[in-house]
Design brief:
There is one protein chain. This protein is an alpha+beta fold. It contains eight helices and nine strands. A five-stranded mixed β-sheet has the order 3-6-5-4-9. The protein has a two-stranded antiparallel sheet with strand order 1-2. Helix 3 packs parallel to helix 5 and helix 4 runs antiparallel to helix 5. The chain is elongated. The two termini are 27 Å apart. InterPro entries: Cation_efflux, Cation_efflux_CTD, Cation_efflux_CTD_sf, Cation_efflux_TM, Cation_efflux_TMD_sf, CDF/SLC30A. Pfam families: Cation_efflux, ZT_dimer. It is found in: Membrane. Keywords: Ion transport, Membrane, Transmembrane, Transmembrane helix, Transport.
């Protein structure tokens, strides 16, 4: 590498774990590449999602008719919630197919983030439906219509059974994916909602207290808001390139800077490509007579063994100090104090002096 007219030794690496991406044949001379594909996990079984989708769509049609006949907002809210369930599964299936496409052209990571966009759409639909249902429920608290308690109770109990089967189907898919988890949360919340609706139907049937229907709807709304906010927060964190939960960039930066021969670590970035795929990049400076390749291998081992990060891109250079330095191979080379980076991004982590 040439800096300010002087030459320094530089080593770069881009290493991936089993979920990495690249040419199946590898790339000679770019140590750390291996042939693999960032495909969707085989555990995310499309057949289970499709089975849950068909079950839900069939029940939505029946429940919607009964909701209008019985005059129950709680049943209608459940039907709308189940409609968002169906939409979330459709989005999940589409996202799974798109994200499985290999990287090409301008999409250097492929379409992995489609899964995260799907999770955002799921969260948004939950919140929009919650706003409308909440408004309708509040109106019914002040002016409750006549509700057929027995129809509400029977339909809700059938809904509990349908959602139990659908939830079981969804649990068979790969829930480590935020995309799949979003669809699963939709259905799980709907299961709780049907239980609440069944209780409301029983109250209406036994006591004639029609407001129980609206109260059950508000409980459903609360569940929808919580699930929607959680999905938006988690997917937004990924889209904003935030560090994954459980990984402290400052702590990792200090740990890397403590490694033998390392003098400084900066431009450290840790982010999530998509659910379950963490990536890290950093610029590492080593002592003038240090071995960049040995340092790189040591740091990659630390990241993999201590933090579980195997998708790494490390730029390793000799620390620039004016004058001559002896490389690991014994050859003299010139180094310069000109900064390696015109503009640093993030904190700089420097090592404490090492005893040799």
């Amino acid at each position: 590498m040439s800096i300010g007219g002087s030459t320094v030794t530089s080593a770069h690496t881009h290493r991936h774990g089993p979920e990495g991406h690249g040419d199946p044949g590898g790339h000679d001379g770019h140590g750390g590449h291996s042939g693999h594909s960032h495909g969707v996990s085989a555990d995310a079984d499309r057949r289970w999602l499709t089975a849950a989708l068909l079950l839900i769509v069939g029940f939505i049609a029946v429940e919607s008719i009964i909701a209008f006949v019985a005059g129950s907002l709680a049943l209608l809210s459940d039907a709308i919630h189940m409609l968002t369930d169906a939409l979330s599964i459709v989005l999940a299936l589409v996202a799974m197919r798109l994200s499985a496409r290999p990287a090409r052209g301008r999409y250097t990571f492929g379409l992995k983030r489609v899964e995260i966009l799907s999770a955002q759409a799921n969260g948004l639909t939950l919140l929009l439906a919650a706003v409308w249902l909440g408004y309708e429920a509040i109106q019914r608290l002040f002016d409750p219509p006549e509700v057929s308690g027995w129809m509400v109770l029977v339909t809700a109990l059938v809904g509990v059974a349908v959602n139990l089967v659908a939830t079981w189907c969804m649990s068979k898919a790969n829930r480590s994916s935020l995309n799949i988890e979003g669809a699963y949360q939709h259905i799980l919340n709907d299961l709780f909602a049907f239980i609440g609706t069944a209780i409301a139907g029983a109250i209406v049937l036994l006591t004639g207290f029609a407001r129980a229907d609206a109260i059950a709807t508000l409980l459903v709304v609360a569940l929808m808001i919580k699930a929607g906010v959680d999905l938006l927060r988690e997917s937004g964190h990924i889209l904003l390139e935030g560090a994954p939960a459980g990984l402290d960039p400052d702590a990792i930066g200090r740990r890397l800077a403590e490694a033998p021969q390392v003098t400084e670590v900066h431009d450290l970035h840790i982010w999530t490509i998509t659910s379950g795929q963490t990536a890290l990049s950093a610029h590492v400076l080593v002592e003038a007579d240090g071995d960049c390749h040995i340092v790189r291998d040591d740091l990659e081992r630390v990241l993999a063994e201590e933090y579980g990060i195997t998708h790494t891109t490390l730029q390793v250079d000799h620390h620039a100090e004016d004058g001559l330095a002896v490389s690991a191979g014994g050859a003299l080379h010139t180094v310069s104090s000109t900064p390696h980076c015109a503009e640093l991004h993030g904190r700089t982590h420097r090592s404490v002096p090492h005893n040799h």
